[in-house]
Task: structure prediction
Amino acid sequence: MNAGVYRSTGSCPPTMGRRSFLALTGATALGYPMGVFGLPSTLVASDRELAPRARLRALFVRPSEEQYWMSWPGKSFDPKKCQAEYITTLGNAAQELGVDLDIDPVPLHEPESVERAMQRLARDPPDGLLVTVMHLESWPRVTYLAQNRGPTPLIVFSPLGTSLPKQQRVLRKIPRTYVAMTPDHTWLATGLRMLKTAGEMGRSRICIVSDAAQGDLQAGKIGTTLHYVPLARWVNEFREAPDTDEMREIVKHYAIESKELVEPQRGDLLNAARNYVVARRIMAAENCQGISVDCAPLVGGCKVSCGPCLAWSKLLDEGRVGGCEADADAAVTLMLAMRLFDRPGFMQDPAPNTVNNTLIGSHCTCATKLNGFDQPPAPFSLRSHAESDTGVALQVLWKPGQEITILGFQRPETMLYGTGRVRGNVQAPYAGGCRTAVEVELSGVPDVRDVKGHHQVFVYGKFDQMLKSFCELTDLKAVHV
Result:
């Protein structure tokens, strides 16, 4: 084992205060740069190159007349002006989302123009297609496009005055198709995000470090590749990884940013940072955008001296997947949450509180950027891994009253969903479980003992309707939790 690798005895070490630890590591609250996570890393460039930009296409279906007489949307509707506004909204959203968006401004109406669009879709299919219908009588063309465009995910945007319920009933039966009927044209940005997410999930790879399987598997209809490597790979990489300046910088950052240092010692934090570096190296080597490790035998069998709890928190804060227990479905759910909702999720062990009819979700790793990747972190303390009292785990405090969404992908095609509100954080001295423990009041759950699934993901915000729409777009079965 590398000389810098520290092995904990498993007994509870004395609490080390922030000031003592900073003195030990050579950091000072005034002298150390707080933006350490913005420092360049030798691993960052290769990681970014693994996620190619989504290629999306936008079409408009409407008659070419400048005014529409005695039919929805009516003569007062200005089709050119509205289409120009839609194009501006789409262009701004594409730039913000970082997607390549091909907008065809010439409206489709005549059979020849529709057929040319179909031929191009067959010749050069994009990752996603967004069709804006702008006249009630244009639906036969839209239906034809939907029925013959191939497997490309399709969103049909129908602003007020362009459809009635009967127009879109046929499309509800067509796979990988979602119709958004709304007067809010800014929803187009959400539509692009949904298409981008569907394309990215299908092209992404998550490294599952486990002896449970070999080679590559596909995560059901969501399409993400699950790439399995043996558990010995992690053990060997951890033991051979030397101490680096990057590891020491990570240690200093967490020592400064944490509210409290309780059980961990300097060696624990250095090994926690080592896990992060090992994770990034394996992800880069295996062409993966996320990772999940069968950590129970690693820690329980003393194969490594520190579990990856802190490493997962840091990866999640950076917009990458770090998942526990080689749970592939939970890792896919974490990836979906961050790409669809633009914020990290919390993979948790669900424990019903039957006295309050609430659900307590707990785990020893949790992101701190709960409000969003560009937002300040939630307060957290550095603790040991609860089940072994070794290594470094994060105890992150969630905001009471905060609305949350709960979701959980289950292969091959089920998505659990629900909403709730944070009641508080469980920190009672007589309570067990994991370090981060969040008590949630779930909506629409008469008896919390009936909650479905395990390792569901909590995420800040109310996104149930968006999630159900995404399920319709990707042929997933949305089931209330």
